[in-house]
Write a structure and sequence with these properties.
The protein has 15 helices and 15 strands. By secondary structure, the chain is of the alpha+beta class. The chain folds into 3 domains: about 210 residues, Histidine kinase-like ATPase, C-terminal domain (Heat Shock Protein 90, 2-Layer Sandwich), CATH 3.30.565.10; about 130 residues, Ribosomal Protein S5, domain 2 (2-Layer Sandwich), CATH 3.30.230; about 45 residues. The strands form 3 sheets. A 7-stranded mixed β-sheet has the order 4-3-5-2-1-6-7, with helices on both faces. The longest helix is centred in the C-terminal third of the chain and has 24 residues. It is globular and about 75 Å long. It starts with 11 loop residues before the first helix and ends with a helix.
């Protein structure tokens, strides 16, 4: 029996307007374009964030492989028809468009494919034009000053330049040339520097696995911000652990690396201690740093495994997976959020609790001070612990001997019979 089928094309005006609210902030939107440049094999990415009132704009230029005319059109298609291989930073074929239009109403891409040819192609996606005709229109733009400038950037080598204009989500609707608007742009430059230095720190640090990359913002070369203070003498690294994740017919490996950072008194300098506190500062920077193909996608907090605690602020851990496990981690379009699979969450509890116990111990050793000197307040050979520490130690010990499910049942019963004690123990 045959079925009737109907083609229902979505309204271009409605859908593109909706996709602007997919979840990007300015820094994350720029990072998504950097993903594309890295996938294109770029070794240098120059970002210009320029304030000029209503004519303010953003340029993201790379020296990657560039695109053919057909490839350029495909790149501007929502849900582009391309296959992503293992290790590619792209995922849904939406990033260039959704990231760009989340900040401005006009996206232009200028590209040059061949090193030995000066043939440069430009195409533009203008939200106002899409809304006017309610159609998925891409145009060959006129030679404006911004586009001519983008073309000049490609005169000496192949690559791609992305231009954002009409930045209605960045600048205020009124008084776009005012002092507040200028200060906002300056603040966005600083936040973008911090964000990219953290998200792409493995690429910027010349990690042989990730490859060498130079990123500049308004002419300033970014320096990698390493969350794990690996250059500090007293950073402690715990044994690496690997876990196999199976989802349907797909399986892959997840790698966990755990670090206890030094206390303030054991850092090489106060300046380094302050720098390593990170954009979110010490308490909120503790936790899991989740990497997809060496690109940081989520950081801070323990993904529901445990709560953030002042006493464990020196604990940080990296969790690495490759793109073959994207579905298992349920990565979002903006590549800023992942969900730790339930089967992995259970396997992480013991090593994470072990890490936090050691971080708590390191913190308490430097928590009592006399003047400027840090001392350990505990008598030699004596260990004192708070009641929540005792509860945490019980959980860790039960996990190590394979009796964690039994302990969970005991905790459940304890909560029913003696809730005050369970609360005191942090259970």
């Amino acid at each position: 029996m045959s079925k009737s089928t109907f083609s229902v094309t979505p309204s271009a005006a409605r859908l593109t307007a909706s996709l602007r609210d997919i979840g990007y902030d300015f820094s994350a939107a720029v990072a998504d374009l950097v993903d594309n440049s890295i996938t294109a094999g770029a070794s240098r990415i120059d970002i210009l964030i320029e304030f000029d009132g209503e004519d303010s704009r953003v340029f993201v230029a790379d020296d990657g492989m560039g695109m053919t005319p057909n490839g350029l059109l495909e790149a501007l298609r929502f849900g582009s028809r391309r296959d992503y291989g293992v290790g590619d930073l792209g995922r849904y074929g939406l990033g260039l468009k959704t990231a760009s239009l989340s900040q401005g109403r006009c996206l232009t891409v200028v590209t040059r494919r061949a090193q030995d040819k000066k043939l440069i192609h430009a195409r533009q996606l203008d939200l106002d034009l899409v809304i006017e005709f309610d159609d998925w229109l891409v145009i060959d733009p006129q030679r404006t000053e911004a586009i001519s400038r983008a073309r000049r950037m490609l005169e000496e080598s192949r690559g791609t330049v992305v231009v954002w204009e009409n930045l209605d989500r960045v600048l205020p609707e009124k008084n776009a040339s005012g002092g507040w608007a200028k200060r906002r742009m300056e603040n966005l430059v600083k936040k973008t520097e911090e964000h990219l230095a953290m998200v792409f720190h493995r690429f910027l640090s010349c990690d042989p696995k990730a490859g060498e990359l130079v990123i500049t913002i308004n002419g300033k070369k970014l320096e990698a911000w390493d969350p794990f203070a690996l250059e500090e003498k007293y950073t402690k690294e715990l044994p690496v652990q690997r876990f196999e994740i199976v989802r349907g017919e797909t399986s892959g490996w997840v790698t966990l690396r755990r670090y206890v950072l030094p206390g303030r008194d054991r850092f090489s300098s106060q300046a380094e201690f302050d720098r390593l506190s990170g954009p979110l500062k010490w308490n909120r920077q503790q936790g899991l740093y989740t990497y997809r193909a060496d690109r940081l996608v989520q950081w801070g907090g323990w993904s529901g495994i445990r709560a953030i605690d002042e006493h464990t602020k020196l604990a940080r851990a990296s969790l690495d997976f490759d793109t073959d496990l994207d579905e298992a981690f349920n990565i979002n379009v903006a590549k800023m959020r992942v969900a730790v699979p339930a089967q992995l969450r259970h396997m992480l509890e013991r090593p994470i609790n072990e890490l936090c116990l050691l971080a708590d111990d390191a913190y308490r050793k430097t928590s009592k001070r006399q003047g400027d000197r840090v001392i350990d307040s505990r008598p030699p050979g004596q260990i004192t612990a708070s009641m929540p520490d005792v509860g945490l130690a019980l959980k860790s010990a039960a996990a190590q001997v394979g009796e964690y499910p039994a302990l969970r049942r005991i905790i459940t019963q304890l909560r029913e019979d003696m809730p005050e004690i369970a609360t005191t123990l942090g259970l």
